[in-house]
Design a protein that fits this description.
The protein is 34% helix and 19% strand. The strands form 2 sheets. A 9-stranded mixed sheet has the order 14-13-12-11-7-10-9-8-15. The chain is α/β, with parallel strands linked by helices and 442 residues long. The protein is built from 15 helices and 15 strands. It has 2 domains: 170 residues, NAD(P)-binding Rossmann-like Domain (Rossmann fold); 183 residues, Dihydrodipicolinate Reductase, domain 2.
C-alpha cells in the first residue's frame, strides 16, 4: 500500500541481528539468475510431495507450456510416487502438458537431504514441505540461484524467520523471482477491494476483525511400524517444530490480508488460547483456539480469532474498518459507508483461481526477465503470526523485536531419521502443551 507501507530496508535497520545477517558482504558479478528466452524449456523441481506440492506442480505446468517437471524430492518415497501419479492423472492438467512430466528414476530423491539434489536439477523450484524446513530450503535455492515458488508460512520459529530475512536482500541482488503462496494477494476480489482502501475510499484504516475459524484438517493415525520421527513427520501438522500451530500455518492467510490492507505490520501482540476440545494425543502440541490483539505502530488494533473445533460457527476472512467506511471480504466482497450504504460490490463469479494466477505471474516474470519478490512481506506476516503464537502460549504481551530476536529454536537446522524429535510424548502418549503464565516459549 502506498501511503503507509513499511519500508523493507527501514525494518532491516531496526534489528541488529537481522541487519547483520542481511547486509554482510556483497554478491559477485554474474551471480544473478537468468533464463535465456531462446532456451525455451524451464526445468522444474518439486520439493515436498504432499497435496499442496502436487497441486502447485500442476499449476506450474499449466502456467507455461515449456515448463518440464524434471525432479522431485520428499522425505518419503510413497509420498513422492503418489504425487507423481496424481500429477499425471490430474483432471486440472491438460493432456498436452502431461507430456512435460519427465521425472526419471534417478531424479526421484528421497530423504532429509533430497532437496539439495532436486534443486540442483532445476531452473525453478517449488518448496512445499512442512514449513519448519522452509528457511533451510529457501537458503539452498538462493545459494544455487534458483527462481522459487514457496508455500507459506516461511518458518515456525524466530531463528528460522531471521534466516529468511537474511535471504531477502541476497535474493533481490541475485534478481531471483520469489513468489510466496499467500495466494489471496493474487485474487481479483481482494485486489479490487484493497485497491479502494489504497485509494482512500474508506479513509484511514483504524481497526479490523480477522477470522480463520473451521473444523480443522486431516489427522494421520500412528502405525505400529512407525518410529517416533516417522510418526511426527507423517502427522506434521500437530507438531510445532514442523507446523508452528495452525495460528501460523493457516491463519497467516487472513492476517496477511489485514497487513496488506493496513500497509504496515504489528509491533505488539497480546491474547489467549488453549486446548479445550481436541485433547486427544493425536493432536500433538496444537491448541484448538486462539485470540490475539495485534497492535500496529499507530496504536490501532486488529482483532484476530482462529479455531479448529467441529460443530461451531465457521468464518474465514477480514473486515477492515476505516474512518469513512468498511471493507468486508466475506461473500462477494463489499465496500460500504458507516451508515450501511454499499458503494462497491465485487460481482464477478468467474475470477481466476488465485493459486493458479500466482504461478502464471511467476513464470511470466521469469520469461520476461523481470523480478517479482514476495519474500519480505511473506516473512513479515510469518513473524506476525509467530508473535501471535508466542502471545497465546505465554499469556504475555509480546513485542515484535522480542519475538524476532528470541533464541528459542524449535526446528533443528539438520534432521535425520536417526534423530530424536525435538518433542516427545510422555508415558501415556501425550505431548507437552504450552501453559499460559508458566511456559517459556520465546
Amino acid at each position: 500500500m502506498k501511503k503507509k507501507n513499511i519500508d523493507r530496508r527501514d525494518f532491516m535497520k531496526g534489528s541488529a541481528i537481522v541487519a547483520g545477517s542481511v547486509m554482510a558482504g556483497s554478491l559477485p558479478v554474474g551471480a544473478s539468475a537468468y533464463v535465456n528466452p531462446q532456451n525455451k524449456k524451464l526445468r522444474l523441481a518439486l520439493v515436498g510431495c504432499g497435496g499442496r506440492g502436487t497441486g502447485a506442480a500442476v499449476q506450474a505446468l499449466t502456467a507455461d507450456p515449456d515448463v518440464e517437471l524434471v525432479a522431485m524430492a520428499d522425505a518419503f518415497r510413497d509420498r513422492l510416487d503418489d504425487s507423481l501419479n496424481n500429477i499425471l492423472r490430474s483432471e486440472h492438467l491438460a493432456d498436452d502438458r502431461k507430456k512435460n512430466v519427465k521425472v526419471k528414476e534417478d531424479h526421484k530423491f528421497v530423504g532429509f537431504d533430497a532437496y539439495k539434489k532436486a534443486i540442483r536439477e532445476a531452473d525453478v523450484v517449488i518448496l512445499a514441505t512442512p514449513p519448519g524446513f522452509r528457511p533451510y530450503h529457501l537458503e539452498e535455492c538462493v545459494n544455487q540461484n534458483k527462481h522459487i515458488f514457496c508455500e507459506k508460512p516461511l518458518a515456525t520459529d524466530s531463528p528460522g524467520i531471521r534466516k529468511v530475512f537474511g535471504l531477502v536482500k541476497k535474493s533481490e541482488e541475485k534478481k531471483l523471482n520469489v513468489v510466496v503462496g499467500l495466494q489471496l494477494r493474487y485474487a481479483a476480489k481482494y485486489k479490487e477491494l484493497f485497491g479502494r482502501i489504497n485509494d482512500g475510499v474508506i479513509g484511514d484504516v483504524v481497526s479490523g476483525q480477522v477470522y480463520r475459524n473451521s473444523g480443522g484438517v486431516w489427522v494421520r493415525p500412528r502405525k505400529p511400524e512407525y518410529t517416533e520421527m516417522q510418526y511426527q513427520m507423517r502427522n506434521w501438522y500437530y507438531f510445532n517444530w514442523l507446523c508452528g500451530d495452525f495460528i501460523v500455518e493457516q491463519n497467516i492467510h487472513v492476517v496477511d490480508l489485514y497487513n496488506w490492507a493496513k500497509g504496515d505490520f504489528p509491533v505488539l501482540a497480546r491474547g489467549m488460547g488453549g486446548k479445550q476440545v481436541r485433547t486427544g494425543k493425536e493432536y500433538g502440541e496444537m491448541y484448538d483456539h486462539h485470540y490475539v490483539e495485534f497492535i500496529y505502530p499507530d496504536g490501532t488494533i486488529m482483532n484476530n480469532q482462529c479455531r479448529h473445533i467441529k460443530g461451531c460457527w465457521n468464518r474465514a476472512g477480514v473486515t477492515v474498518v476505516g474512518t469513512k467506511g468498511i471493507v468486508d471480504t466475506f461473500g462477494s466482497g463489499t465496500v460500504s459507508t458507516h451508515d450501511g450504504k454499499i458503494i462497491y460490490k465485487h460481482r464477478s463469479k468467474n475470477d481466476p483461481n488465485p493459486a493458479q494466477v500466482e504461478h502464471d505471474v511467476l513464470f511470466a516474470s521469469i520469461r520476461s526477465g523481470g523480478v517479482i519478490n514476495n519474500l519480505h512481506y511473506g516473512a513479515m506476516s510469518t513473524l506476525t503470526v509467530i508473535m501471535g503464537r508466542y502471545a497465546t502460549y505465554s499469556g504475555r504481551e509480546v513485542k515484535r523485536d522480542d519475538a524476532l530476536n528470541s533464541k528459542v529454536q524449535l526446528m533443528p537446522p539438520e534432521v535425520s531419521w536417526d534423530d530424536t524429535p525435538p518433542v516427545l510424548p510422555d508415558e501415556r502418549g501425550f505431548y507437552p502443551v504450552a501453559m499460559p503464565g508458566k511456559s517459556v516459549v520465546f
